Amino acid sequence: MAKRVRAAHVDHTNGLNRLLDEFRGSSEEVQRGKKETVSQRKELAVRQSKLQHQLTLLRERQAAAAAAENFEEANTWSVEMEACQRDLDQTLRDVRSILERYDRQEEERSSLLRKEVLARREALKFLSSVSQDADAKAQQYITDAHAQVEAERSAAEKGVKVCSERLEELRTSVSSLTEEIEGRLDKGAMSVCKAELEASNQALSAATSDKEAIEAQIAALQRALALKVEEEKGCLRRVGEARDAMRRLEEEDELGSAALRRARDQQTLEVSRVEEELASSRQHQESANSEAELLRDAEEDGL
Questions:
Q1: Are 12 and 48 in contact (CB under 8 A)?
Q2: Could you tell me which of 225, 211, 87 has the C-alpha nearest to residue 146?
Q3: What is the pTM of this model?
Q4: Which are the contacts of 200, defined by CB distance < 8 A and separation ≥ 6?
Q5: Can you state the angle between helices 2-67 and 71-183, rounded to 10 degrees?
Q6: How far apart are CA 217 and CA 220, in angstroms?
Q7: Which residue stretches does the UniProt record annotate as biased composition, category Polar residues (predicted)?
Q8: What is the rounded average pLDDT for all residues in the chain?
Q9: What is the pLDDT of residues 185-204, one digit of tens each?
Q10: What is the CB neighbour count within 10 angstroms for residue 59?
Q11: How confident is the model at residue 53 (pLDDT cuts 50, 70, 90)?
Q12: Are 52 and 287 in contact (CB under 8 A)?
């Protein structure tokens, strides 16, 4: 029974470790993808900043040309502004696409963390069930073994008592026969008494052999009881090992839950920061569009 419990514990632990390794591999792959996404986001942010700066310079030049009534040059700057604005719009679309991909990667990573935590919890439930079942079976096995050994020991003691009483009766009979033989003088009676004495000695020898056999049986039962006690200690030790494994899984479960909470908090902060950047980019774009409209109106008024 203990071997079956230990084998089930080892098999389940190995399976759990393989599953957790798969989760960790997928999580590391997602993490690498997130790092690549963040790197691309930084590159797009630099590009966005350059385009916004370039668009500001083009507006200033177009406004200066319009103020100088150099409409041909102002028109040239307007064309370049439109091209720069298109590049900026495309960059903003790329930024939104990057952010959506980052959100998907973060959700996938959170899902993997949740699966890992759930796997640990299921393993904890299974090991708890196995430990409780093993504990109950071991206790029942020990109780039954003790009862069996106690019954056999009691029966052996009764047998020894019966043999001792029979031996005492035979000794008394031998003593009585010896006295009777000594009291008789005729040879015929002496021969009969000797035969009876020999038969009594044989019965006494047989009773002694039975007593030795029963004593040997008692010694064997005592050795069996000692082995049962050792098995009990082994079962209790293995149950203790299973409980230690359960405690380790509980600690790992708590660590996994904490990691999931930290990942969610980090995701929330990252999303807030990106939303702020998008809002700022939209404000810059709206401001740029307003300035472009004003410049177009000024150009039309000049024309």
A1: no
A2: 225
A3: 0.41
A4: 170, 173, 174, 177
A5: 170
A6: 5
A7: 280-290
A8: 74
A9: 455 655 766 777 677 677 77
A10: 19
A11: very high
A12: no
